[in-house]
Each structure stands twice: as structure tokens, then as C-alpha cells.
């Protein structure tokens, strides 16, 4: 439950300064819990998304991908249970008129206890909270808040209302004339677009169980408390896969995907000791098993991905509410049935924050004067994820060096993202590339004109090698595979 606010604030500042993440509508003082991705952030996000998509579809022979609409028939959310069950316990402060999620208040109190060296008290508090949440004991949650002396951050008072459940879905109107419009919802998850297309995909793809359907896309939740940077946002992106299996085999597949997904996170360069499983204390209404993969963010261990055994709840409910038969004929056992489902659901924005948190580093570097200290800030991103793979840097803006650099740039940009820079000293240009996570920098100097060799600099080690210019493109391609 360690909390490193200094590192979190450094990452937030770095993200803005170097074009990764900006507060949305910042010229109008922003919008709570909404962020824009800048030029490097958008590319890093795309690279993570593409890596997930490849691992789920291209490398899996029995998983296909779709792209379902954000708007769905409103009965979808009645069938899924979101209209009746998609809510969180909230509490209002009567003096500030602000509303808070109960678990956020209690988690913040536990973090404070942890900072004070009271780790046992923090764990006890979280245990009590999870028990009360599991039992839907709303009065007990309020009592716990009062016992812990938790006050509103704005008013400083403990003048709380009773705890109540609030639905987290955004609603809007469909139709151009208000009187004729019908209320619909912005989807709070991408999974239902997969479930309502189960038969379409199964029949057109001639899919045989077990098989999966993957999707990435935006989802929307009316989060009350805006905090912790992009960890919890009102508009966010999910990467989900629903794996359809024969009833009775779901827990075996659940165990399979639990380990498979953990390995995927490790493949992003995340150390094993920074990841952990956390079994759900309270199962969702659709699940018979559920676990989170958590990463040790600067704000402590928090969920990045959920793996859930959803039984046949979703398909069965959509069959009931639509009146359409949603079943699969299994030729191996000569039987019709509603498939069971194992879900893997990972937050793209949270994965982005995880990758950024792991990559951010401040390092002392040697200088010509041993008495002087110098520090560089860098992002040690895996090369395959880095927004820019190669920086092409002519040493000076004359003597034909820019022309050689442009020729290399034109060759390489067909294969991967690269950047050309000729402004400032070579040292300053190196530091800028370190800060955005570029793994390779190539310098074209006067020797290049003589023997067609260049200096390649490696971001993490600071090592520099002299190589033929003809080798550069392949070297980078090999590193980003």
C-alpha cells in the first residue's frame, strides 16, 4: 500500500511537459477526471493497444476481433443488470455539498495510516471495508467512516449523510427532437457489444467452441471523485476479450487466462514483484470466480486487469430480454447449450499509466568534471512500445550532413516511427529523446561522409557504437519485434 506522491507528481508533470497527457480543455481550467493524450501519449497508447490486439487475435487461432458501437439499445443495459446493479456506495458531506465514493474515502484513510507507519491498522481497515461492501452493509460503512474520524477534504467536517447507492451510467437522448427522443446510455463497458453479437460472429466466422471475441473501445462511467491522474477517469478505454466455453469447463479456462494474462503484463517489462493477484472479496452478480491483476503504482497496488468467470449470465439474460434464441450446437456432444464465458478486461489507460510509472527514471550521469553532478530524466520504455523508435541527428546543419540524415530518415520512416532533429547541441537533443523514451539515437557527423558509418547511442546504457549506416534500419526493426 506504499504511496509515493513525489513520483506520481513527477510523472504527471513529465507527461504534460513532453506531450504525453494534458488536462482536457485546459484553457478553460480543465474538466475533472477527463484527460487528452498528446502526440507522444497517443502513439504510446496505440502501441500498447496494438500489442494487446496482436496477442489476442493474430497470435490466437480461435479469437477474433470486432468493433461494436458505443450506443446500444437501452434494453441491453436492463438485461445486463447495469440499470439495477451498476452502482457504488456514495456519501455526501452536508457542508461542502460534495459527494464521495465510500471506498475512496476509506482507502485514502488506509494510505494515511500506512504513511504513519501503522501498516497493521491500514490492513485491518481495508479488511473491515471489504467485509461491509460484501454484505452491502451501508449503515456499517457510515459507522466505519465516523469511527475513523474521516472528514470532507473541502469542509473539514464529518457532517455526513447516510450512505446510498448511485448508478454510474451516463444517460443521453437519442433523436433530434426532444419530445421524440428516447433515453439511452453511454456504454459503461465494452463487453455487452460482444455478447449481443455472439451469434453474428459465431455463424459468419464458423467459430467452434472454445473461441473468443475481442474488442477495444471507449467506455464511460460517472465517477464522482476525480483523482490519481488517469487511473480513474470518466471517459476511458478498455481492451476486453470474452472467451466462450462449454459449461463445466469454465474454471479450467479461468485458470488458463489468469496465468496467460499475467504473463502478458510481464512481457511489457513489468517485474514480477510489481504485480500480484487479488481475489475478489465480493463477486459480481454475474460471476462464479473473479480475480484482479494489480500493479504497484506510485499510489500503491491497484487493479489493472480483471479476469472473471461470468457463467452464462449475459447470454442467458439477452436471450430472455430479446426473445431470440442465443445458443450453440456442440457437435462433439450433440447438444445445444448457452455457452459459459471467461472474461479478460484490461484498462488501456491504466496499462498506459503502469508502463509510464515503470519506465520513469531520474539518473545521475557522469560529467567531464568529476566534482559536478548531472541528472537526466528518461523513460525506459520497451522499444516495441516507445512512441519514437529512432532519432536521426545531424551533428551540424551544414556540410551535407542534413542531406545524409534525411536520406536515412526517409528509409527508416517507412518501417517505424522516427524523428529528425537538428536544433541545439547534440547533448541537449539526446536528453530530449531520453525524456520521451526514444531507445536509439543516430548521429551523422563528418566521418559519415568519408566511410558511411554513424554513431548509434543506446538510451538505457548510454553506450555508443560506430556502425555502417546501412545497418541502422534492421538493427531497430530487430529490437522492436
UniProtKB/TrEMBL annotation:
Reactions catalysed, as given in the entry: tRNA(Gly) + glycine + ATP = glycyl-tRNA(Gly) + AMP + diphosphate
Cross-referenced Gene3D superfamilies: 3.30.40.230, Anticodon-binding domain (3.40.50.800), Bira Bifunctional Protein, Domain 2 (3.30.930.10)
InterPro entries: aa-tRNA-synt_IIb, aa-tRNA-synth_II, aa-tRNA-synth_II/BPL/LPL, Anticodon-bd, Anticodon-bd_dom_sf, Gly-tRNA_synthase/POLG2, Gly_tRNA_ligase_bac, GlyRS-like_core
Pfam families recorded: HGTP_anticodon, tRNA-synt_2b
Organism phylogeny: Bacteria, Pseudomonadati, Bacteroidota, Chitinophagia, Chitinophagales
A Gene Ontology molecular function term of the record: ligase activity
Gene symbol of the encoding locus: glyQS
The enzyme's E.C. designation: 6.1.1.14
Function: Catalyzes the attachment of glycine to tRNA(Gly).
Alphabetical keyword list: Aminoacyl-tRNA synthetase, ATP-binding, Cytoplasm, Ligase, Nucleotide-binding, Protein biosynthesis
Domain Aminoacyl-transfer RNA synthetases class-II family profile: 137-370
Family: Belongs to the class-II aminoacyl-tRNA synthetase family.
Oligomer status and interactors: Homodimer.
Enzyme class: ligase
Primary location group: cytoplasm
Subcellular location: Cytoplasm
Name of the protein in question: Glycine--tRNA ligase
Organism (species): Compostibacter hankyongensis
Residues bound to substrate: 101, 189, 236-240, 343-347
Positions of ATP binding: 221-223, 231-236, 303-304, 347-350
PANTHER family: DNA POLYMERASE SUBUNIT GAMMA-2, MITOCHONDRIAL (PTHR10745:SF8), GLYCYL-TRNA SYNTHETASE/DNA POLYMERASE SUBUNIT GAMMA-2 (PTHR10745)
